[in-house]
Structure to design on (482 residues):
């Protein structure tokens, strides 16, 4: 009885634990389903801008450059510091009057006896005047304000401003590269999913064909080799279907990891524009607004600033300075010394070991390098936008041309299916027609994907990412209406 009760309590506890586990698994499943909701391309782009570690790193470079620029503004201000010191002298500084004229050259024997007797009564310590103690303590407030540095302060501040522009251009470049990567991964999910569905349709169709072939073989209408040919085609299609599913899974994982979400269901379909953008306008926008050119302009500005900075080493430096004593001892020297002082100073370089002439030449070489690189980059960007535009046109022409091939392959499969069922065609002909139709669908899908990539590339190069996103939203709305 005791054993039965214990067993009953154990079963009750186990049931309760299993029930809680089932509820937990159900909750997790529901959470996963909630995260796997549809996401448009514009939503995916907003999500990526928010969670991308790469962009956050580039943004910190911008913040760093801006902080350095703000720090450079302090070069216009005076410096103020408190200085304190403790000095241990070998001996206190003293002055003995007997070492000074006329006492030093005085012949005591030539003096009257009365005077001599008076001088003899004076102790030697009375002639000593202490100026400082052996331990000297001092504290003062020191100020220095450069008012002319040969343009070096202005040059340094200009370099800091150009570095901000450079970091902002790098951020814009990273943003555009990330945009192209999102286009590739976002539509890769749709493409691989459609490809897997196409391969699944092929498997289903070939499975039905094999079933018909087996029946026809049993009735003696076709040879065994015809049925085997259909089975071989079916097995190959299953292998291709498995590959397509793996590609879809990898594309889905890549997009989800990129957006930092468990799963993504892209809701924006592939599309093609009826009227393509103007190539001349794309080229004009590219050569006027591309971040690579602004980055090189910032490099050129930094090189100019570096030339001015090195040339400033040949000019004098003029500055204001001042000192105010905060604490001093009670010595005679401290009483004589003034409590504050101000003045103007100038420093003129005559001979220096800094090698300014070589540095100026190096800075000029960096300036020329930036200018030549900018000219070459303009040529490369012009070529890139031309190539991407023509790739887009080529992909559209391929999609349009494959519409006729798709209709032909569909009709050919229908006729081959009828002929095979009536014993007027072989299984090989029917399978070839099925494979041809799948190949045309796959080829057209690949062309549509290449069109999306090329279109996104020309829009990213010309700085029209927002226009691209607006186009995807318009396309999504039209698909919803249909």
């Amino acid at each position: 009885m005791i054993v039965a009760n214990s067993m009953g309590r154990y079963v009750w506890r186990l049931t309760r634990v299993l029930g809680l586990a089932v509820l937990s698994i159900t909750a997790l499943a529901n959470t996963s389903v909630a995260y796997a909701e549809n996401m448009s391309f514009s939503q995916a782009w907003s999500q990526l801008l928010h969670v991308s570690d790469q962009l956050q790193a580039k943004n910190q470079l911008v913040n760093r450059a801006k902080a350095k620029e703000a720090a450079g503004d302090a070069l216009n201000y005076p410096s103020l510091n408190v200085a304190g010191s403790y000095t241990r002298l070998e001996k206190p500084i003293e002055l003995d009057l007997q070492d000074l004229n006329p006492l030093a050259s005085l012949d005591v024997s030539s003096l009257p006896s009365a005077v001599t007797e008076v001088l003899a009564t004076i102790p030697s310590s009375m002639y000593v005047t202490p100026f400082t103690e052996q331990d000297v303590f001092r504290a003062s407030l020191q100020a220095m304000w450069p008012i002319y540095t040969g343009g070096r302060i202005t040059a340094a501040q200009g370099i800091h401003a150009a570095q901000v522009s450079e970091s902002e251009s790098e951020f814009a470049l990273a943003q555009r590269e990330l945009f192209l990567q999102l286009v590739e991964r976002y539509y890769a999910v749709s493409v691989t999913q459609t490809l897997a569905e196409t391969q699944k349709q092929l498997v289903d169709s070939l499975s039905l064909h094999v079933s018909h072939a087996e029946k026809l073989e049993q009735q003696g209408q076709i040879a065994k080799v015809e049925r085997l040919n259909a089975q071989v085609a079916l097995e190959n299609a299953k292998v291709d279907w498995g590959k397509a599913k793996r590609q879809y899974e990898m594309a889905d994982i890549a997009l989800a990891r990129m957006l930092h979400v468990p799963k993504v269901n892209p809701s924006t379909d592939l599309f093609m524009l009826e009227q393509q953008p103007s190539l001349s306008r794309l080229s004009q926008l590219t050569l006027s607004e591309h971040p690579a050119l602004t980055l090189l302009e910032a490099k050129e500005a930094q090189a100019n600033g570096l030339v001015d900075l090195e040339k400033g080493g040949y000019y004098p430096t003029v500055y204001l300075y001042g000192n105010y004593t905060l604490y001093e001892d009670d010595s005679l020297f401290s009483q004589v010394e003034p409590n504050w002082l101000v003045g103007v100073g100038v420093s003129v370089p005559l001979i220096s070991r800094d090698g300014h002439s070589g540095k100026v030449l190096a800075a000029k070489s960096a300036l020329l390098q930036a200018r030549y690189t900018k000219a070459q980059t303009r040529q490369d960007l012009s070529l890139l936008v031309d190539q991407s535009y023509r790739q887009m046109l080529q992909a559209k022409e391929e999609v349009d041309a494959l519409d006729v091939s798709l209709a032909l392959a569909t009709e050919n499969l229908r006729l081959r299916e009828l002929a095979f069922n009536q014993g007027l065609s072989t299984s090989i002909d029917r399978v070839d027609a099925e494979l041809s139709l799948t190949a045309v669908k796959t080829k057209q899908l690949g062309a549509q994907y290449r069109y999306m990539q090329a279109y996104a590339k020309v829009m990213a190069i010309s700085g029209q990412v927002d226009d691209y996103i607006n186009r995807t939203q318009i396309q999504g709305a039209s698909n919803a209406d249909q």
